[in-house]
UniProtKB/TrEMBL annotation:
Organism: Triparma columacea
Family designation: Belongs to the TRAFAC class myosin-kinesin ATPase superfamily. Kinesin family.
Gene Ontology CC, one term: kinesin complex
Name of the featured protein: Kinesin motor domain-containing protein
Pfam family, one: Kinesin
Length: 763
């Protein structure tokens, strides 16, 4: 409950906002009500802004989550910038400023919606990263022993400063001295010999029992300051800061509120959004994203069902309450990425698209989507998809996801009055868990399989061995999810377990590609992000570096035996947090990515044009088809020296162009050959149909051999005008002076006549 206010003692900024809201004549009854409540002290400033947020939604269609707690003012001022999202034309909608004389505009008195529109479509932001820790499991005996870490002195000092809230290093040294820990017995023996053993502790906070070693693992989870302190066996003490750190005991709804909810509002307001969970296998990614099995309808449900519920509730509300007539359509796609295969989990795992290349375009174009209108539809989709997912038991997780899965919501909305429409997508990615094969033990099947083969071929004698082999096999992870299912034959066990290994490799490869993309995005000098390295990164490309708002939730285990993996996951989160992006409403990720690549292709082509020149080089070639018994066949002589013309000077640009064309081919779902073969690209630099043959360039630039650049017969016509004019054709005597076509032709012929010369011994 706020303090009582009178109109006179209202803070100026509040009065200004309220005046803006109510208009010069206080004609808006609801705003008057808010104002009167505020003045009488019934409403706090925060509460008043809650009302403004509601108005923004009802009158302008700008959604905000009903979040309890403070911060409504900041939210309102941020959303105010988007007020014209659903209005047509430029400027602030009905900017006729009723109540004012012709053309007279007083900003302070203009009602909120009648102010000039501010540009609302782009927002700069960093990827938001949060960390969530799974509750601790009891560790096996001896694991602590193995994970002891001795910190270097400076880190030990830092740790004591943090844990005892000490500022001065001299105080920390007193603690160390008292503990006798870091220097061990040596310090104590020096102390006892010099000062006696029972000296008083002069004002330093009483220390815990001496602790010479720290145990590796999570040392401190600090949700208040969104900080995690790790003790890593190889790197010592490490501190990580995130946008949110949630304590291991928090509920699923708290995780949703802190890491996902703001993005759901952005999604409804026309931004593309991406939320992904990243972490080691068994760290709680699926738990966070979907919830434990059977929880889709209860309080334990994860981000996906919660997000769907919030979007559906918001759309229902908008249908009945908005003052602008909005039409909306919500669809869902649910796919799994396994190596280079993308499968539709809502169509019994059918492959997406007609080819592996086109799969991502198929998904992003919405061809795999289904319309949903209520929570029942969502639950059906989730159950159908879940039944279809690759899951198996490993030593690390009873129900381990064996591929990356992507749940995509697509929302199409239109203001029927203004005709303005907007499409936005929400990507919810449950990434497969990075796993160390030796820990998840998914490679055990290989040896089982071989053992079975051995037994089979040994016939009756093998049956004895089979029994022997059965004992250790029983301790290995079982692969069936279904306890009641008939136990698999040893053959199938072998196959299934080697499948686990392949799955682990595919998952790790996708994650590696993801890490490479994050690295490139963080490297200011890198102008190429290798999205096309994997299907996972292709599908997530817009979420990582494109136009969408993104949030990464790092899931991790606290146990010391997982400290290396936890540190690595937290480092990934930290790298993601540094990526700055520009998000825009109504962005079409795929089309824009392609347009961006097209622009880069044009720039690169211009660079090649400006830099490239012809040069004559001597190439030594050996006769590989020499007759038997000749000197050449024995490796002596027979070397042909050929003078050949070669394009040089823009090698880096050509490589870049090649990568860009590859990336474009991946995005458009075509092949590199068709990108190069068309007239669209590289006409001037030798990739177009005409130039490719004139320059003697092979069709496939995928082929790394340099020979595609060589050409014996130089056709002077083929030398680009730009090179002739600039006299850039260097290395060829007299070429710099050549300006007319005839001279060029003559020189080309002369060079061809002189090109053959034999060196060495001939037979
Ligand atoms: N925060 C949590 N609270 C309680 N239990 C949890 C939590 N996180 C995970 N678990 C439990 O830990 C187990 C593994 O979780 P989950 O399957 O979500 O891991 P994962 O990271 O998705 O693993 P994988 O990559 O192998 O699929 C499950 O039994 C899950 O219920």
């Amino acid at each position: 409950m706020g303090q009582g206010h009178s109109a006179e003692n209202l803070p100026e900024e509040v009065l200004f906002e309220i005046l803006n809201f109510c208009g010069p004549n206080f004609e808006d009854r609801q705003s008057c009500l808010v104002l009167s409540k505020y003045i009488s002290g019934v409403l706090t400033t925060n509460g008043a802004y809650r009302h403004y947020l509601q108005r923004l939604h009802i009158e302008r269609g700008i959604y905000s989550n009903p979040v309890p707690g403070p911060g409504n003012k900041e939210r309102f001022l941020a959303l105010l910038k988007r007020q014209d999202l659903w209005m047509s034309g430029e400027g602030g909608g009905e900017g006729d400023a009723a109540g004012l004389e012709n053309g007279e505009e007083d900003e302070h008195l203009l009602p909120l919606w009648r102010q000039k529109a501010k540009p609302c479509t782009t927002e700069n932001f960093n990827i938001a990263v949060s960390a969530r820790f799974k509750p601790k499991e009891p560790e096996g005996e001896g694991s602590e022993e193995n994970a002891k870490v001795t910190l270097p002195l400076h880190q030990r000092i830092q740790l004591i400063k943090m844990s005892r809230r000490l500022k001065k290093t001299s105080d920390v040294l007193k603690v160390l001295k008292h503990e006798g820990a870091w220097f061990g017995n040596k310090w104590q023996s020096i102390e006892s010999s010099e000062e006696g053993t029972n000296k008083e502790n002069n004002g330093v906070p009483q220390a815990a029992p001496a602790q010479e070693h720290l145990v590796s693992g999570v040392h401190e989870i600090d949700p208040m300051n969104d900080r995690v302190v790790m003790v890593d066996p190889t790197k010592g003490l490490r501190e990580f800061e995130f946008d949110a750190v949630v304590s291991p005991t928090v509920s699923q709804s708290t995780v949703y509120d802190s890491s996902a909810r703001p993005l759901i509002a952005d999604f409804i307001n026309g931004f593309n959004a991406t939320i992904m969970v990243y972490g080691q296998t068994g760290s709680g990614k699926t738990f966070t994203m979907f919830g434990p099995s059977g929880s889709l309808n209860n309080g334990d449900r994860g981000i996906v069902p919660r997000a769907c519920a919030e979007v559906l509730t918001a759309l229902d509300y908008r249908k009945d309450h908005l003052q602008i007539p909005m039409q909306s359509r919500l669809t869902v796609s649910y796919v799994e990425i396994y190596g280079n295969d993308v499968t539709d989990l809502l169509r019994e795992g059918a492959p997406c698209g007609h080819s592996k290349v086109a799969a991502q375009e198929y998904v992003l174009s919405g061809a795999a989507s289904y319309q949903i209108s209520c929570m029942d539809d969502v639950l059906k989709c989730l159950t159908t998809g879940d039944d279809c997912k690759r899951k198996a038991s490993t030593a690390m997780n009873e129900r381990s996801s064996r591929a990356h899965s992507l749940f995509i919501l697509e929302l199409n909305q239109q203001n029927l009055d203004s005709g303005v429409s907007c499409k936005s997508r929400l990507f919810l990615a449950d990434l497969g868990g990075c796993e160390q094969i030796k820990k998840s033990k998914v490679n055990v099947g290989k040896s089982n399989h071989l053992q079975v083969l051995k037994d089979e071929t040994m016939g009756a004698a093998g049956s004895f061995l089979k029994k022997e082999a059965a004992a250790p096999a029983a301790q290995e992870p079982h692969v069936s999810d279904d306890e009641s299912a008939p136990s698999p034959s040893p053959f199938s066990t072998g196959f299934q377990q080697s499948d686990r290994l392949r799955e682990a490799v595919y998952i790790n490869l996708g994650l590696l590609a993801l890490k490479q993309c994050v690295k490139s995005l963080n490297n200011a000098e890198s102008n190429y992000v290798p999205y096309s390295d994997s299907k996972l990164t292709l599908l997530l490309s817009s979420g990582l570096g494109g136009d969408s708002k993104s949030s990464v939730i790092v899931c991790a285990a606290q146990e010391s035996k997982h400290s290396a993996e936890t540190t690595s996951a937290l480092l990934f989160g930290q790298a993601c947090r540094k990526i700055t992006k520009t998000a825009r409403t109504g962005a079409n990720m795929l089309a824009e990515l392609i347009a961006k690549i097209d622009f880069q292709i044009k720039e690169t082509e211009a660079g090649i044009k400006a830099k490239e020149r012809w040069e004559i080089i001597e190439e030594k070639r050996k006769d590989t088809l020499a007759e038997e018994g000749t000197m050449e066949s024995m490796g002596f002589g027979g070397v042909e020296v050929k003078k050949i013309t070669v394009l040089v000077g823009a090698e880096e640009e050509r490589e870049k162009l090649n990568n860009l064309l590859k990336e474009r081919a991946q995005l458009t779902g075509t092949t590199l050959e068709s990108e190069i073969g068309g007239d669209k690209y590289g006409g001037a630099v030798g990739f177009g149909k005409g130039y490719a043959s004139a320059y003697g360039l092979g069709k496939s630039v995928d082929n790394d051999q340099e020979s595609y650049r060589f050409k014996d017969d130089v056709d002077a016509d083929a030398i680009p005008e730009v090179l002739k004019m600039k006299g850039k054709v260097g290395g060829w005597k007299g070429m710099n002076d050549a300006h007319d076509q005839k001279t060029l032709e003559k020189m080309a012929k002369k060079a061809n006549r002189r090109k053959m010369a034999y060196a060495g011994v001939s037979a």
